[in-house]
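Thread: quick sanity check before group meeting

JM: Hey all, I'm pulling together slides for Thursday and realized we never actually wrote out the predicted structure for the chain we discussed last week. Dropping the sequence here so it's in one place. If anyone has concerns about the input, flag it before I start.
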Amino acid sequence: MRIGVGLHLLAPDNGGVTNYALTLLRLWPELMPEHPMILFSFPHNEALLATLPPATRRHEIRLNTQEEALLHFDQIDVYFCPFGTLWPRPVHKPAVLTFHDMQERFYPENFTEKELAERFFHYDWSLRMADGVVAISEFTREMAVRLAGVPRSKCHVVHHVPDELPEPRIPTELGKSFPGHPFLFYPANVWIHKNHRALLAAFAQVCARGSNLSLVCTGSLLGRETEWAETVGSAGLEGRVLHLGNVSRVEISWLFRHARALIFASRFEGFGIPLIEAMQTGCPIACGRNTSQSEVAQDAALYFNADDPTSIAAAIERIVQDEPLRRRLVDAGTRRLQNFTAEKLINGHLRAFQAAIRRYSPLRDWYNEHVRLPRSQLPRTALTRRERRRAQRLLAARANVPSHYESIPS
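JM (edit): ok, ran it. Output follows.
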């Protein structure tokens, strides 16, 4: 089987999605050499693809537009889009996409009307036209099934795995700013759902009670450097919070290994790769009890209400001060990590590709071309009341954790 991989959306600012794609591309030729991946790459991918071993790029076709991939479909058996959208579509080959989330169904206020229209057009219809869907968690599979009407049999849950973390190196700026200070770590682009404002408000509460902690953040500021500085300043946290921007893997490795804890304040996650990276490095975890986070971390995290800065602050203080809890969480993380292996990742994708080939048929191909494609082009910019109710029910079902998990009371 020859797998064509569309890489147009491979970009540094795509957060965990980019980490997932690079990990998959790195591992595939090592564990599945008999099924080569043919990379449909673009000039803007080069910096990221250059980090991969030569074996990954053995079969690569450089394109200028995504549509050019169609000219090379005689060389592949299945077309794979790892970034949540299937494009071009429809394609006259078995097609698989990896589905990461549908945040617009839960928090439409986080998006402009144009962004909503693009998401409805790309996410909903990509899911419907694909022959197979790799869902990164049970939560994302439920999104696809309950919110987009995708048959459950078409969805394959395949969890992420932590990418290899190299020998650590301290970030230069950290060494200058907080030499030897205990710090909390939060790696996340400053998207609204990552909840940095609530985290800063919580951290201000902790600092006001005399803590000597610092907070280190990484990820893209997305051009909002001035807004970030103003938010930190208004919280009275100048000199206590350091944002390093996008950092190297060796620096990420150091931060996880030396942080007092990972404080993962996100309000919405399809998976949450930093959770398993923390497990990999023995870093205690505190995270929100929402969406996929308790599915991924299970008993290896201290949970808080991510909508409540007071709850986040209480979690920070407990995870920093309670040594028996810290040891329990790290030990649980080590055990939990055995569920996220390279073999499971690769074999799960292989099963999805094989199932898509079996599912594909001329009739489905015709239906995509003549029925779904015209329907997808009807403009849409808002959710119906019924859709919002379904999304809120799914969100509410994920708002609690089992009683035996460590959790800050609401």
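AS: nice. The mean pLDDT is 95. The domain at 172-338+399-407 is CATH 3.40.50.2000 (Rossmann fold).
JM: adding both to the slides.
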